[in-house]
Amino acid sequence: MEKIMTGEQIIFLAVAFFTLGSGFMVVTTRNLVHAALWLVSTLFGVAIVFALLNAGFLAVVQVVVYIGAIAILFIFAVMLTRKDMRDQGPQTNRGWWVGALIAVLVFAGLYSLLQGWNGLSKTASGIPSGFDAVAELGNALVSPDAFVLPFEVASVLLVAALVGAVYVAFNRK
Amino acid sequence: MVPLSWYLILAAALFSIGLFGVLSRRNAVAILLGIELMLNSVNINLAAFWRYGNVLDMAGQVFAIIVFAVAAAEVAVGLALVISVYRKRNTVIADDIDMMKW
């Protein structure tokens, strides 16, 4: 990188290292409550990445849905099931090095795949003035010529999954 | 300006970390944590391609929102299954959950 970095690049790199470091802690920490809290910090880093990409709505949804609901659900699940996993035995299975090898190979493969693609150094065009991404997103989600059907299917899926979750976790005794 | 490649490499790295978590952890809840990391990296890719492609076409963000919904559904069902198995077998270690193994 011969040129001086811009402020946006410095912010991106700081957020990226924060996100990746937190993500690494999620998969390596022994204590699962700590892993869930590291997940919160990773999700927050991803929310900042969304904000850097001008996807404000996604950043807000990331904080509200992921950190506010999913991460809390994880912490509840860890606390409901934590009796036997605290001190005894390793947290990783016997073939963990195979998993590490596969992960490194996947990253190397994706990296080399990206290097061979010519759209890689593309920079973003400016947002047109007067363009409201959130309003456009809302229109696209409910417009019959756009995405109203996938949107409705996703909502039905969510209802079915939540009802199913209550049924599966219901204590019949 | 940040080039597109930086976002894609960040997403690839986060995906690989999540994949490592899924493949190496013994605890079923920790496996689900790894899956969350992988889903998030996919969302970074979708948002980046939306921003660096045609901004007027909202398909990228809509896809990311559908991924949010699917992730919420997956976590709800997955954790419910883990809790249910924990009640019956008193374990959350993925290797020990072998009731359906023939």
Task: Outline the structure in words.
- The complex is a heterodimer of chains A (173) and B (102).
- Chain A is built from six helices and no strands.
- With 173 residues, chain A is an all-alpha fold.
- In chain A, α1 (7-28) packs antiparallel against α2 (32-52) and α2 (32-52) packs antiparallel against α3 (56-80).
- Chain A has two domains: 1-86, Four Helix Bundle (Hemerythrin (Met), subunit A), CATH 1.20.120; 132-173.
- Chain A has helices at 7-28, 32-52, 56-80, 96-115, 133-142, 148-169.
- Chain B is elongated and about 50 Å long.
- The mean pLDDT of chain B is 88.
- Chain B has a single domain, classed as Helix Hairpins (Orthogonal Bundle).
- Chain B is mostly helical and 102 residues long.
- In chain B, α1 runs antiparallel to α2 and α2 runs antiparallel to α3.
Largest interface (CB within 8 Å) is between: A-B, 94 and 74 residues
The best one-word shape of chain B is: elongated
CATH class of the largest domain in chain A: Mainly Alpha
What is the helix fraction of residues of chain A, given as a range?
55-70%
Number of continuous helical runs of chain B: 3
Distance between the termini of chain A: 64 Å
Can you give the mean pLDDT of chain A? 85
CATH topology assignment of the largest domain in chain A: Four Helix Bundle (Hemerythrin (Met), subunit A)
Given the helix and strand composition of chain A, which structural class is it? mainly alpha
Q: Count every beta strand of chain B, where a strand is a DSSP E run of 2 or more residues.
A: 0
CATH topology of chain B: Helix Hairpins
How many strand segments of chain A? 0
